[in-house]
Write a structure and sequence with these properties.
By secondary structure, this protein is α+β, with helices and mostly antiparallel strands. Helices cover about 30% and strands about 25% of the residues.
Amino acid sequence: RTDRIDPAAVDEELQMIVHVGLLRRVPSRAGRLSERRRAAYRRMLADPTVKSSILAKIFSVASLDLVVKPPKRLKRDERSKQIAEFAEWNLNHGIRGGLPGLVWAVASGGLIDGTSVCEKRWGGVEPKGRWTGKRRLAELKPKDVDQDLVLMVDEYKNIVGVKGLRYNDGTVFDPKDFVIYNHLPLYGGPVGSSDLRAAYGRY
């Protein structure tokens, strides 16, 4: 019986409401970090042991060589080869910071907060060289999740929008305009788990 349910006691991460005698999920914000935990994660980075473990993970990925190849069924197709070569050039050389910058933008927030959101910033058309006439991905601009924006989800935990909180308060953007990374998500949830969560109790 829903008349025995205290709405204030309902799990805030599920964002549920009591309506017309039924308990139902509504499109809402994805689960958010509490301000206390969020502040603790940032304080933890002042510990050299914690900081070095996070940086080691990020730098080990950033130091890898990125190779893009067409799918096997199209490996003899010249057009597919050209697309793969352009993507490889873009992600290694055409994007701001190269591969290390890309990995840092995506992984730094993802490891600390569990989720990172980066806006895709597109450059102009290449004026000369091998890739003349092609438009490149110029930068991945990392956003401060829960401060700059929040992820909007439906009742099935699908991300359906990215809602601005700061300079564009209330504006909902299409998720396809962002790179969204979830670190160690559980049960298909829309947000991940911080790499610092296991040590959080000590701080």
